[in-house]
Amino acid sequence: MDENRFTDLLNNYLTGTMTEPERKELSVMLGDPEYRQVLEEKLLQELEGRRFESQGHEDALALIEQHLIEQLDARKGKRLFVFPKWFAAAAAVVFILSIGSGYYWWRNGSNEHNFLGKTNTAADIRPGSNRAVLSLDNGAQIPLDDSISGRVATEGGTEIVKADSAELRYRAIGGGDNTVHMNTLSTPRGGAFRLVLPDGSRVWLNAASSITFPTVFSGDSRTVTVTGEVYFEVAPDKAKPFRVHLNDIDIGVLGTHFNINAYGNEQKIRTTLLEGKIELTKGKYRTVLSPGDQALSGAEDMVVRLNAEDLERQVAWKSGLFDFDNADLPGMMRQLERWYDIQVRYEGDVPQRRFRGELPRGLDLNDILEVLREVNVRYRIEGRTLIIEK
Q1: How far apart are CA 170 and CA 106, in angstroms?
Q2: 263, 229 in Cβ contact below 8 A?
Q3: What is the pLDDT of residues 86-110, one digit of tens each?
Q4: Which terminal residue of the chain has fewer beta carbons within 10 Å of its beta carbon, N or C?
Q5: Separation CA 220–CA 75 (nearest Å)
Q6: What number of H helices and E strands is found in the chain?
Q7: Spatial distance between the Cα atoms of 364 and 318, rounded to a whole number of angstroms
Q8: Beta 141-144 vs 132-135: how paired, if at all?
Q9: What is the spatial distance between Cα 366 and Cα 364, in angstroms, rounded to a whole number?
Q10: Residue 194 neighbours by CB under 8 Å, 6+ apart
């Protein structure tokens, strides 16, 4: 038994640096009772003398435990091993609460948790849901929520149908006047929605985002305009290139999967290509992206190369996850503001904390804020304002 190698593999898994061959190697090791015993002994050493301060904390751990197990199921098709309940909760917290290049529990010498958070109304703040507003060409606005189903409207020769709780579809039915109508689908803070465009292209809208598009793609191109964060799976059509406009950027594609993050309060617009090829133009700047490339557009423009795990992080929201990849506190808070429809205010200097790990977007705000409690960030809730204290 190579205990040092086993420890190295565990560290790589928890820090998100594990390669696929290493993942398979760890999977084989975890099938061996001797290695499982080593793992449990290490966690017992870490947990010795530690205690959980409240039932609410244990409830949050249970939710994170469930999520962690689901992620292992999704990524490997089966669980690597069966977690004892106490181990799953502990491992989930170690996984979630990493700071910088190391983990808080592994580097903090204290055996006590100092829970300084005050959650007066945080438990009442629910996560976002499937909500959007459809704006028609005639100015009419149609709220899309669980109360609306079936046919929503008909414009020209196009039928607009709410297919399920979270998706709007456009399909040609003929017999119309062939007039092109411009529609806009927009999500509020705390909302997300999906869309199937008239050409069959699929679109995912994150919170506080929008897409404007025609009810029929006429002419020699398919052109849409977006704000916020939008993920595309474009239907191939070499005769009609697909084009996306946002601010001063133009993106041209044929058939591809890519994500655009263009929120106004982020420093850079991030265009991330997962499949296919796109051409990005900004003034005189032009670049062609290949799968795995991410274009960063701001005061300075550049393209970076992402590995497979980094690509997953960029679109984690689409799968119902927050993925904090070495995120600082303001970066984490901006995501929470959009999804929970809250405001964040800082009293004094912003705490210097960094976070790495995943959390389900279906958690109540109170459960998410357990992360802040663990790293001794003081906060309080006033209405829908989260105040980070001195």
Answers
A1: 52
A2: yes
A3: 444 344 444 433 333 232 322 232 2
A4: C
A5: 41
A6: 10, 26
A7: 18
A8: antiparallel
A9: 5
A10: 166, 167, 168, 202, 203, 204, 205
Residues 383, 242: Cα–Cα separation, whole Å: 43
Percent of the chain with pLDDT over 70: 72
Q: Which pLDDT tens digit goes with each residue over 140-162?
A: 999 998 777 889 998 878 899 99
Amino acid letter, residue 30: L
Cα distances (angstroms) measured from residue 356 to each of 74, 300, 389: 20, 26, 22
Apex 184 CA angle, 178 and 188, nearest 5: 160
Mind giving me the DSSP string for 82-130? PPPHHHHHHHHHHHHBEETTEEHHHH---SS-------TTGGG-PPPEE
Residue 228, H or E segment: strand 222-233
Place of tokens 């200097």: 349
Pairing, β 257-262 against β 343-346? unpaired
- The amino acid that residue 184 corresponds to is T
Whether pTM > 0.85 for this model: the answer is: no
Residue 163 tokens, joined? 């297919």
Judged by DSSP in three states, 363 sits in: coil
Extract the tokens encoding 160: 């607009």
Quickly count: other Cβ atoms within 10 Å of residue 198's Cβ: 21
CA angle 136, 140, 144 (to 5 degrees): 80
Report d(CA 207, CA 129) in Å as an integer: 9
Distance, in Å, from the CA atom of 212 to the CA atom of 235, rounded to the nearest integer, reads: 17
Spell out the domain ranges in the chain.
128-218, 219-306
What is the CATH code for 219-306? 2.60.120.1440
| Both tokens assigned to 26 | 């760890």
Q: What percent of the chain is helix, strand and coil (3-state, nearest 5)? A: 30, 35, 35
